Amino acid sequence: MAEATQPSGGRPDTAAPAAIELRGISKAFGPVQANKNIDLRVEKGTIHGIIGENGAGKSTLMSILYGFYKPDSGEIMVNGQPLTIADSQTAIRAGIGMVFQHFKLVQNFTVLENIILGVEDGPMLRPSLAKARGVLKQLAEEYELNVDPDETIEELSVGHQQRVEILKALYREADILILDEPTGVLTPAEADHLFRILEGLRAEGKTIILITHKLREIMEITDSVSVMRRGEMVASVQTAQTSPEELAELMVGRKVILNIEKAAANPGQAVLEVRDLRLVDDEGVERLRGISFDIRAGEILGIAGVSGNGQTQLMELLGGYPEKGSKVSGTIHMNGDNLDLTGTKSDARTRRKRGIGHVPEDRQTEGLIMDFAAWENVAFGYHDKPAYQSGLMMNNTAIKSDAEKYFEDFDVRPRNTNLAARNFSGGNQQKIVVAREIERNPDLLLIGQPTRGVDIGAIEFIHKRIVELRDAGKAVLLVSVELDEILSLSDRIAVMFDGRIMGERLPSETTTGELGLLMAGVTDTENTPDSAGIPPEDRHVDELPEGRA
Amino acid sequence: EPALIFDLGGKFDKSFNEAANNGAVRWAEETGGSYKELEMQSEAQREQALRRLAETGANPIIMTGFAFGDVLNKVAPDYPDTKFGIIDMVVEQPNVQSVVFTEEQGSYLAGIMAAMASETDTVGFIGGMDIPLIHKFECGFAQGFKSVKPEGNVLINYTGTTPAAWNDPVKGGELAKAQISQGADVVYAAAGGTGIGVLQAVADGGKLGVGVDSNQNHLHPGSMLTSMVKRVDNAVFDAFTAGADLEAGVKVMDLKADGVAVAIDDDNKDLVTAEMQTAIDEATAQIADGSVAVHDYMTDNTCPVQ
Amino acid sequence: MGLNSLKDALTPIIVLSICVIWVLLDQNRALDGIESALRLMTPLLLACLAGLYSERAGVFDIGLEGKMLMAAFSAATVAYLTGSAWLGLLAGIGGSLSLSLIHGLASITFRGNQLISGVAINFLASGLTVLLGIKIFGLGGRTPALVGDARFGDLNLPFADALAGVPLLGPIYSRLISGHSILVYMAILAVPLTWWVLYRTRFGLRLRAVGENPASVDTAGISVTRLRYAAIAICGILCGVAGAYLATGLSAGFVKEMTAGRGFIALAALIFAKWRPWGALFATLLFGLLESLANQYPNLDLGFVTIPSMFMNALPYILTVIILAGFVGRAIPPRAGGEPYVKER
Amino acid sequence: MDKMPKWADVILTPLISLFLAMAISALVILAIGESPWVALTTMVEGALGSSYGWGYTLYYTTNFIFTGLAVMVAYHAALFNIGGEGQAAMGGLGVALVCLAFPWPHWALALPAAMIGGALLGAAWAFIPAWLQAKRGSHIVITTIMFNFIAAAVLNYVLVNMLRPVGSMDPASARFPEGTHLPKLSDIATIFGTEWGKNTPVNITFFIAIAACFLVWLLIWRTRLGYEIRAFGKSEPGAMYAGISPVRITVIAMLISGGLAGLMAINNVMGESERLVLNAVEGAGFIGIAVALMGRNHPFGVFLAALLFGFLYQGGGELALWTSIPRELIIVIQALVILFTGALDNMVRMPLERIFMALRKREDV
Ligand SMILES: Nc1ncnc2c1ncn2[C@@H]1O[C@H](COP(=O)(O)OP(=O)(O)OP(=O)(O)O)[C@@H](O)[C@H]1O
Ligand SMILES: Nc1ncnc2c1ncn2[C@@H]1O[C@H](COP(=O)(O)OP(=O)(O)OP(=O)(O)O)[C@@H](O)[C@H]1O
Ligand SMILES: [Mg+2]
Ligand SMILES: [Mg+2]
Predict the structure, then answer these.
(1) For this UniProt entry, which segments traverse the membrane (chain C) (predicted)?
(2) Do C216 and A104 touch (CB under 8 A)?
(3) Atom 27 in ligand 1: residue holding the nearest Cα
(4) How many Å lie between the alpha carbon of D271 and the closest alpha carbon of chain B?
(5) What would the CATH number be for the domain defined by C2-324?
């Protein structure tokens, strides 16, 4: 451990200059010191991982390298040459490419337009587009990065959007590729596919910096790894010489249990009975095609699937806010009572009154009002609760005292309920939402992507709480693209594909491989081995109905 | 020291505020006297301005525009020793002189001239905001026109319903062109700043325009048939001259009293034919002796000809 | 999808139907009316395209009115003083550009509120034009009337007279198309030009990108600030031409507040057009047509009832609401519009 | 966590901005060949130097409070209500109809009825744009602009053809009956035996405006509806998730907004002119936008901004009345104040923040 705190080279031959060398980089955002005197050395032709808790300063550091932010102090050497990176253009010219945590794509532009933006060949677009089309075809073949160049970004799945970002960097002939949490939005298959590409790039001599929260990925693919904590670089080590446990401890500053223990389920009465649920969105696309399932009290039903196969619509429909203009049919029974699917009694408010709690997939645009104070967010969705009213006014004291309690129980940091939600890190934001929904003690908890972009410490905590709720005899519907999460939390697993449930499995009796096949739309009977090789999302695009394109 | 208050249009409105200003300036030039003047800035200021002027001892205080009527009714009794003059409105108070003009008579003459100048038997009228005062102009004009050409046609447009109606020369120009395209060859504009656009478009289109309030003949010499002048300047001049002895009561500035007239000067004398001049003189005499009565729209909100 | 493209085609369809029906009913008046509509459309179109550049780049601009007013004043003043409409046009552009610069300073450099800045610019123009007018000419804010070369005259296209006799096309060419000020043709040409710039050039690509997602432009190494300044500069130039046309083309001089709300109508047209150049042409033409219709038929007699002039004057506004409510779908503004680009909080 | 203390942000920044605006205004005044000092003293003297000036300043302030609050409430629901002008005009019609409908025995009875009338018509005028936005997706900015024009047309028609006493030149309604005349603040002062603001139009509506500020504050930050309005304004998907109906909030927020704008008519129509005239609103609807934005969409800010604009209006009026400075100068000064305090505020804030950061660093060391 002792030697680990010294930044040291990736590969033994120290004669060659490092691809990247950062010295004493500091950066403050107002009063927040995001980076403190950071040193980092990344050798050529290696994959270097960077890990750290939410808000540790990883994205900031990489953005500085990419010329997006200007550092307050420090120097940057690229391939041994000192370089002042004033803007991203300089970084691009120095061969640095970056795939941001939040993609920097223009939603209503085509893939091609996004690719050439900023590196057009001349004042006219046509020649640039034609050239890019050719190059893109080559790159696609070379790296198996297929995307339709004429599709607009908003029509693409997140996985494909990420491909566009990678293609953007490759099109700019990047030698050094930075990926900020690339797998946060990917399915296991997609992530594997990405790693194969990264390995290919490494083989070509390119250098890759990979930011991730997933220790498994670090162990699997990186050559060396750096750990950041609270704006500081706390360690840089060879991956081969460390372990997940050690990294987790370096990151969080304490021991972390990576696998949660949970007792066997003890299911009771059916809480939710869903029959033949169908939903056609306002563009006429059938998003749910006859979904039926039960969830019993004291049980976690996990829904696995590639994102975009109807999980979002299912959760929104159960939560009481299907997209405007969509038509729904089927029945939902909650504790034996029929729930309205249309009309004023089908809204989220009524669902909450019925005892349905909901942690939405998108905490930033749905689960929280980012400009509201944390304590106000604690009442969000429950603001009409009688306990929060006093006469005509709202009882803010009651809300604040609840907020204090939740912050304490869920260890939300900083412990300041008056801060606006946007000032919390992603993990802590998620804790606020989860606390709000779980503490309400709902009969049924809908929880979507509970740990997306959340650091290890917080994941552990949130998982524990979900299991506790189940053990208290409540029903939980869990939707996640993380198969690990599904497998370790669920008592039963349903796999969704193209608006249908392809099959149900017990976690003890299934494997990642089998679930992967179901997620790709391969049903139990036609279990053909060759279809497994194709990344699932490639296939489902073709099978979507015409109206979608 | 006399005082003059202009209405919201401002003293350079190319219209009656400006005419009032001319009267005051002339008075100052001829007598060497000085006077106070104010321009309104908002509705609520009317009372403020009146009171403040009265308190500073200004006498008489002349104001232009019917919008002062209501306020003056309220303020005048509080300052019995001050004389007030209001133009375009009757206020019945012992210390107020109300000056009203018979715009319908002047417009009647303009209508006769337009009818005689028109070759297409179609003429146009363009008003600013659609309010009663402007209908008074419109109605007089139409009566005069029909008295010569009973079968002829008067096209009527109003500019708008917001204050912009008085300041939209572009719209004025388009309205004039629309009327020209319907055959109008003489267009009478009673629309403030909008009228400038009307007269411009008429001149550009080679037709004849009729100005209003002040003598606007000089704007487009040769294209201006005449201007229906309303001698607000005389009214102000007279009031200033009368000073503190300003006579209370209603003062009707009609054709007879030279309160309204059609302007004939060097700029348009070539357009005024001898028959036209005769017809004007005749009509003036008839109106004066009462054998021709020009209907005043304001009396019953209707116009006998349409 | 099919429904949406139908909705997009609706404005052109409405516009063309009005024209065709009108011509069929009363060809003579219709041609004059449509010609008038083209003139009325021109300032709206220029201002609308101005707003399009600005808003497509992510800078909202409710100051179109003020810029046009300032341009009208500067154009009239300089045209009067120099006797040249072209110098007036340059001055108009200059006047409008200086307000654009203020807007840029406030909303781009200092990341201020774009709406407030726009409101301020409208007030500023409204006050300054009259103040300067009084100072220079002493006519209560008016400029003296412009004559001769100080105004933009009407351009007669070749063969206009010769072709006038040809049935149908002849009158359309000689009366509708020919005989406008050069600025009208410039405005109409600006539509395909804008389309071409926006969709066929590098600048256009970047401009649209910066209005949708400035971070994408920034991470591509292009200056967001410079792009946005370029956009508002174009906006200033177009507003300048619009104002100059009002004062030195359509009328012969400046009258205070002479823009009379056209900047706001242009803004409405921009939303109507869904921020697209051809849409802008048809939306503003629709406004022009409605106003021209109201001008031609001031007291529409429907037989059983005569619509009073007040309502004929308000007709363009009423119909706009009805059309918006009934036919044109949701207009989605450029996503980054109205928000200053802030990298570091 | 903040870059500088709150007091600096809330007080120092606007004050410096205001100072800058005044400095540039002084340059403008110099440029037109007048004396800035005379202008300033005339304005301050005329607006704040006497109870008389205050009376007018507060009268205008009252107007701007209502329109400012109207814009503010809609703004919290992410609705940009440019229609205050039309809503206030229609509010005037509502007030006039109520006042003329009935020979009111006492103002205390007439006032609540007129308030309802004004608010109702103002709200009705906002309802259509709101409903169209919520249900049909018509952009509220366009529809409210259009409704301003339409309101002008309606008012013009009603005044000329229906409410105007026969034979009157003036497109205005008849005078309201005696029983509707609201007590002026000067009358109230007389009761207390002092003479204050004699012959100024400020009336008890001023207190209603202040109460409205407080009530709006309660509404937005203390009630469930306010919570829902703010949540909807910040994130529509969020609102859906929380079970807040976008249609309901859009319509309610605009109804409140239009109602507030309509209430302005109590002040100018019922309190001041005591009859309905054509252009009674006189741009207060538009100034409301500036007031709300400069007041940072907080009722207290709205109050201060309204006071500032009231001062500018009255001081400017005095300037135009008693000096040779044209009244348009005031519009320029207003523009500069809006520009510097509302849009260029970061020009002041950024350097200030740097100073405070540097000071803090030094303390830390
Ligand atoms: N643009 C910005 N302006 C102000 N503060 C910022 C900005 N970006 C990041 N910060 C702050 O800087 C700190 C480091 O943020 P950063 O995004 O680098 O963390 P991270 O390690 O990437 O976290 P995560 O794992 O959640 O992505 C955080 O406290 C964050 O709130
Ligand atoms: N009403 C119209 N009349 C003529 N051409 C049109 C019309 N509407 C759009 N166009 C043109 O058709 C082409 C395709 O339009 P499209 O809707 O795809 O624009 P877009 O690039 O998607 O715009 P945005 O980026 O705003 O979504 C564009 O070049 C556009 O200018
Ligand atoms: Mg990050
Ligand atoms: Mg599109």
Answers:
(1) 6-25, 37-54, 69-94, 115-137, 181-198, 229-252, 264-290, 310-328
(2) yes
(3) A54
(4) 11
(5) 1.10.3470
